[in-house]
Amino acid sequence: MSHIRPAVAADAKALAELQEATFRSTFGASNCAENMDMHCRLSYGEHIQREELEDPALHILVAEHNGRLVAFAQLRMGHAPGCITATRAGEIQRLYVADDWHGKGLAQALMDACTGELRRQNADAVWLGVWEHNPRAIAFYRKCGFTEVGEHVFVLGEDPQRDVLMIRPLPGH
């Protein structure tokens, strides 16, 4: 199995590569190349991920196997949309698993690590946005106890897309 740990600055290059690869793998076939390229150019790169790793508002977890990053999640506390009814909600901004690790329980282990970290940050709920045309992710989040509470727009390149907003309480807060 893999080892889940907080990301460090030395992970920036590998993290950027993993983030872009998993994003392209997940959404590339359903979106035009120009919008995918624009999004990736603006969102992924060693310097971009290094800045995210240095941002005190973000907490990034990575799963590593034999020295290779195979999954990651990016968490953030702070502003949440109005449909997120919680006193102190934490967001899972990104959660992706490399294709060759799908179906091996890693997504669930990473989700458990995310909720554990958000509890440590005194979150009473966790929320996320997921593309409406990503049924596999929506099914996974429902299995993890998330329910749909709203929507927002995610702009991919120049294409405004609908994300479903989902929330899950964190009992024992």
What does this structure look like?
This protein is α+β, with helices and mostly antiparallel strands. The chain has a single domain, classed as Gcn5-related N-acetyltransferase (GNAT) (Aminopeptidase, 3-Layer(aba) Sandwich). The chain contains 5 helices and 7 strands. The longest helix is centred in the N-terminal third of the chain and has 16 residues, at 12-27. The mean pLDDT is 94.
- What does the largest sheet look like? 7 strands, mixed
Q: What is the total tally of β strands?
A: 7
The number of helical segments is 5
Spatial shape: globular
User: What name goes with the CATH superfamily?
Assistant: Gcn5-related N-acetyltransferase (GNAT)
The name of the CATH architecture is 3-Layer(aba) Sandwich
Structural class: alpha+beta
CATH secondary-structure class: Alpha Beta
- Tell me the β content: 25-35%
Helix content: 25-40%
Oligomer: single chain
Per the CATH scheme, the topology name is Aminopeptidase
Mean pLDDT: 94
GO molecular function, one term: acyltransferase activity, transferring groups other than amino-acyl groups
Keywords: Acyltransferase, Transferase
Protein name: N-acetyltransferase
InterPro entries: Acyl_CoA_acyltransferase (IPR016181), Bact_Acetyltransf (IPR050832), GNAT_dom (IPR000182)
